[in-house]
Amino acid sequence: MFTGIVEELGTIAAVEEQGDAIRLTVRASTVLEGTGLGDSIAVNGCCLTVVTSDEDTWTADVMQETLDKTSLLGVKAGDRVNLERAVTVDKRLGGHIVQGHVDGVGEVLRRIPSEHWELVEIAMPAEFGRYLVDKGSITVDGISLTVVQAMRESFTVSLIPETLARTTLGTREPGDRVNLEFDVIAKHVEKLLVSGYLDRFTRDDA
What we know:
The chain is an alpha+beta fold. It has helices spanning about 65-70, 160-165, 185-195, 195-205, and strands spanning about 10-15, 20-25, 40-45, 45-50, 50-55, 55-65, 80-85, 105-115, 120-125, 135-140, 145-150, 155-160, 175-180.
């Protein structure tokens, strides 16, 4: 599990094509502290497993399923990526519950700069709109953000200077693809309601 608080901007050092998969080598520093083989690191919101590491790089295998559903398809050497280690039980939950399981890919539509912040509108697949509410949580490229306005096929977020400086959203342009993960709590509530599970308790109490 992650919190959506990006620890550092890493750099893709190499991409090795493996047919139905790729092996990513990522240059980093902070996320390598205390990290061993088999540990999880989120790359632009995708939970990946460390398979090798040295002083300043680590590698992960990315399967076809991940490539099909995330913006890691087409990533290349030199690209900057948001990195976060899996949260431990003694850490503060600074963002919200993030699984590192990307639901789909969105697209940056527009950026509206202001003196101290920037409003960004992001398009999303319409079927995910039901999971968004104004002031709710959304994960964009692994970043925990608060929804300003939830619309049918897009939403807006307001970015403070810290987020612009420390994450990939500082340089994303209209047309760029971003990974989206929607609130897992909303998904569970929907499943309970659709399945009629909660209705059973209502009938039993009647």
